[in-house]
Write a structure and sequence with these properties.
The protein is an alpha/beta fold and 296 residues long. The chain has 11 helices and 8 strands. It has an 8-stranded parallel beta sheet with strand order 5-4-3-2-1-8-7-6. The chain is globular. InterPro entries: DUF72, UPF0759_sf.
Length: 296
């Protein structure tokens, strides 16, 4: 049975800071991360999706957490085929967007600039990797990233460009996991040693992905997005404002244990980040998993 690490997507959201989860006096980034790391062994960094990370910040994360603490890090949005404002690029590379003020895509940038973005991304996360504190880099692809030969090749390209950093992939287009395509997707990911994120998310939407309990590579990764009825809302609080019941979490325990039996590590991230919902649910899930372990 492999290790199961449970954590949340972030520790500095404004709603979390206002919720009272942090005790009085926990008023600096260092104190908040230390408080969080006393309670959970894993956290997912989402800020790197919006802006490329900095090596200095990664160094601080290493210094401010216990030796066995783990960071999962979201890949920069351009790498996952999301458009981005030119202002999100490093200042010295913004010339590549020309005079445009609207969004740019990776394909519109000079290949040398793209290569430099990848190089800087790897370099920035090197302190985490070298300290043994980097779990995986999460490549979360958009709803328009559908199953097909070009996109399958791009998955492997992301793996290779990120190396030696370990990666995992999450889909938000249903074609990857439709009944007639699911086996092909899982076989491809297994062949190329790409962990596929198992998701719990609202069903019945065009970008809904069923919770396929399968491990395509080590480690396994599971992300809980909540089950909000407003999943398509552009307002974050409505999309992720869902607190799981203890019964809903308990129903996942057998699946998590099944996954952990085939890999060395399973990362479980609560991404229902509205106020302290994710943190409360993560603590509940830890207790449920501990209880299930004792019963065995």
């Amino acid at each position: 049975m492999g290790e199961i690490l449970v954590g949340t997507a972030g520790w500095t959201d404004r709603g979390l800071l206002q919720s009272g989860w942090y005790p009085p006096g926990t008023d600096t980034p260092a104190r908040r991360l230390a408080h969080y790391a006393e309670r959970f062994p894993l956290v997912e960094v989402d800020s790197t999706y919006y802006h490329p990370p900095s090596e200095r910040t990664a160094e601080l994360w290493v210094r401010r957490t216990p030796g066995d603490f783990t960071f999962n890090v979201k890949a920069f949005r351009l790498f996952t085929r999301h458009p981005a404002k030119p202002s999100t690029l490093p200042r010295d590379l913004r010339w590549a967007a020309g005079s445009r003020r609207d969004n740019v895509s990776l394909d519109e940038l000079d290949p040398d600039v793209v290569e430099e973005l990848w190089r800087r991304f790897r370099t920035a996360l090197a302190p985490l990797y070298e300290a043994g504190k980097l779990g995986v880099v999460l490549f979360q692809f958009p709803p328009w990233f559908s199953s097909g030969p070009d996109n399958r090749r791009y998955l492997v390209e992301c793996r290779d460009r990120a190396a030696p950093l370990p990666v995992c992939v999450e889909f938000r287009n249903h074609t990857w996991m439709e009944e007639h395509e699911r086996e092909r997707t899982l076989d491809f990911l297994s062949q190329h040693r790409l962990p596929c994120v198992v998701v719990d998310s609202p069903r019945g939407h065009g970008n809904s992905i069923p919770p396929v309990i399968a491990s395509t590579a080590d480690p396994a990764v599971v992300r809980f997005h909540g089950r909000s009825t407003e999943w398509n809302s552009r307002i974050k609080e409505r999309r992720f404002g869902y607190k799981y019941s203890e019964e809903e979490l308990a129903a996942w325990v057998p699946a998590l244990r099944e996954l952990s039996a085939s890999v060395s590590t399973t990362y479980v991230v609560l991404n229902n980040c509205y106020r302290d919902y994710a943190h409360v649910n993560a603590a509940q899930l830890v207790e449920l998993l501990d209880g299930a372990g004792r019963e065995r």
